[in-house]
């Protein structure tokens, strides 16, 4: 398959290309490993249930129409915030630890553990078991879904969500406006017309019923997650990477579970459509037959899905450039082939965006609100962190706070750097030095890190495609560490608690998790198994886990 694209199957060149290596699936865990896998699955499921239960009091509950208010048993959690937060945090840590242990059976140990992996069906069942409790829990880690509901109501009323914020369009006393975080009440919608069109349909079904609206928005998010789970193994196969390894890092990642499923972010739909579109496009490009007839229809369909994903959030449109370079290489890697592929895919994208913008009645006002999120200053954004650090240093030195002035320099420079990196990756794909999946992931990674504002779930823009291509520890270890760290430090209510509440919950979490580790030390693979014991495991407990 890689030869069709002209990608050299021998050792790739360049510092980026060495992130990729052949990683075949080798299912066939022995009885001891299967027993440990079942225990890991159960441990994570218990953690997921605890998160769902704790979210009844510690989640991102609506200001109005809270269905738990006044209920004797379920409403109790809202009156004991420290206990509810403790339960949620314990569950969060349990899911993260379970994911780390599951990695032993998905990608092996970076110190040379067993080469055997769990099967695709075993990973699917594990992922489903962990997702189900979060699918029925109240929103967690973010209140963005309430902005979705308010913007959908604005659209349903025939008003322009790209001009009016919830306060101006709906009024401050509106039940949906009251649930929107204060910082976003005067902000127009930064999302594409497809997402708001879907939101209009949800509003038509639910009216101002917040709970029902949250449920339907989560259904949309779960549809996006399903597309991610469908696409990742197929993309991994094109890169000769283990499908379970790709699914473990990309789909079972706590960032996805916590922020796309529990947090109901529209990145789920964006990424699902983008990855599915890339898979269909590459299937057509890598086919042995000429690209005409059914293959051309498949290519156009895949490009159309990528364009659809961009009408949810615009960054996914970058994927169309890498599909175009793969197509140009298939056609001879000449200037003429680049122009031809660019014309074809640009035509498809323009047609899709025109149809969606016209059919939804929303037009192209969304182009003017793409920079809305930059109002937030995020420490995870490198140019923003540099600007804020420089401004703080100026205050300490007595020369004044010049943060805004510095940001006006660092952010444009970062944008140029991100553009240069993406251009270099496009050329690498055209020359056959990088697979388009890997090049796209690297480009999205640069875009995320150099973006004016970065939220934790933005990392999934890069992690999901790279999970299907990058196999080396130099990539996986930082992603694993960052995913685990960020997943356990964010508050489940989408904002901050009083410091003493966090301290008490953190102490309870540390003590409880320590006790759980001690109790399960003979049943869960807390440590990497020794090589000799991996080949000849003892029956019962997981060998070498003590």
TrEMBL record:
Q: Which GO terms describe its molecular function?
A: glycosyltransferase activity
Note the topology in the membrane. Answer: Multi-pass membrane protein
Task: State its location(s).
Answer: Membrane
- Asked whether the UniProt record includes Nucleotidyltransferase among its keywords, one would answer no
GO annotation, cellular component aspect: membrane
Primary location class: membrane
* Keyword terms, alphabetized: Glycosyltransferase, Membrane, Transferase, Transmembrane, Transmembrane helix
Pfam families referenced in this protein's UniProt entry, alphabetically = MptA_B_family (PF26314)
Q: Which InterPro entries match?
A: MptA/B-like
Keyword DNA repair (UniProt): no
Transmembrane stretches, start-end: 42-64, 84-102, 123-141, 210-232, 244-262, 297-327, 339-367, 379-400, 412-430, 437-454, 474-493, 500-519
Q: Which family does the record claim for this protein?
A: Belongs to the MptA/B family.
| Record's protein name | Alpha-1,6-mannosyltransferase
């Amino acid at each position: 398959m890689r030869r069709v694209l002209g990608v050299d199957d021998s050792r790739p060149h360049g510092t980026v290309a060495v992130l990729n290596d052949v990683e075949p699936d080798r299912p066939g865990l022995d009885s001891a490993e299967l027993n440990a896998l079942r225990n890991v699955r159960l441990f994570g499921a218990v953690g997921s249930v605890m998160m769902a239960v704790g979210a009844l009091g510690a989640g991102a509950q609506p200001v109005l129409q809270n269905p738990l208010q006044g209920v004797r048993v379920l409403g109790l959690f809202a009156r004991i915030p420290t206990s509810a937060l403790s339960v949620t945090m314990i569950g969060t840590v349990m899911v993260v630890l379970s994911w780390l242990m599951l990695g032993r059976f998905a990608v092996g140990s970076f110190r040379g553990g067993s080469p055997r992996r769990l099967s695709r069906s075993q990973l699917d069942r594990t992922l489903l078991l962990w997702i189900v409790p979060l699918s029925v829990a109240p929103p967690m880690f973010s209140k963005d879904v309430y902005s979705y509901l308010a913007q959908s109501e604005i659209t349903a009323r025939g008003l322009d969500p790209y001009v009016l914020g919830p306060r101006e369009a709906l009024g401050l006393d509106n039940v949906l406006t009251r649930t929107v975080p204060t910082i976003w009440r005067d902000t127009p919608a930064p999302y594409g017309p497809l997402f708001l069109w879907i939101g209009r349909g949800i509003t038509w079904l639910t009216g101002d019923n917040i709970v029902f609206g949250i449920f339907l928005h989560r259904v949309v998010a779960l549809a996006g997650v399903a597309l991610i789970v469908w696409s990742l193994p197929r993309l991994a196969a094109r890169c000769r990477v283990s499908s379970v390894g790709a699914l473990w890092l990309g789909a079972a990642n706590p960032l996805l579970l916590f922020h796309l499923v529990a947090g109901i972010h529209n990145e789920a739909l964006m990424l699902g459509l983008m990855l599915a579109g890339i898979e269909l496009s590459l299937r057509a490009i890598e086919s042995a037959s000429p690209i005409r007839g059914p293959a051309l229809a498949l290519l156009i369909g895949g490009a159309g899905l990528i364009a659809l994903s961009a009408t949810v959030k615009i960054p996914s449109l970058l994927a169309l450039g890498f599909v175009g370079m793969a197509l140009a290489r298939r056609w001879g890697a000449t200037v003429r082939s680049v122009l031809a592929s660019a014309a074809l895919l640009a035509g498809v994208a323009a047609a899709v965006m025109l149809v969606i913008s016209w059919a939804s009645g929303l037009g192209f006002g969304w182009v003017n609100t793409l920079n809305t999120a930059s109002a937030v200053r995020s420490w995870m954004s490198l140019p923003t962190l540099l600007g804020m650090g420089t401004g703080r240093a100026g205050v300490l030195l007595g020369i004044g706070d010049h943060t805004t002035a510095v940001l006006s320099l660092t952010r444009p420079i970062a944008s140029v750097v991100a553009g240069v990196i993406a251009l270099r990756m496009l050329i690498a794909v055209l020359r056959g030095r990088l697979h388009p999946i890997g090049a796209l992931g690297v480009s999205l990674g640069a875009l995320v890190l150099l973006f004016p504002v970065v939220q934790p779930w933005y990392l999934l823009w890069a992690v999901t495609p790279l999970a299907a291509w990058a196999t080396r520890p130099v990539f996986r270890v930082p992603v694993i560490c960052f995913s685990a760290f960020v997943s356990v430090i964010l508050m489940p209510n989408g904002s901050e608690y009083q410091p003493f509440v966090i301290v008490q919950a953190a102490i309870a979490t540390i003590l409880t998790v320590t006790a759980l580790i001690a109790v399960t030390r003979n049943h869960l693979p807390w440590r990497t198994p020794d090589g000799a014991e991996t080949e000849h495991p003892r029956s019962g407990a997981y060998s070498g886990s003590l």
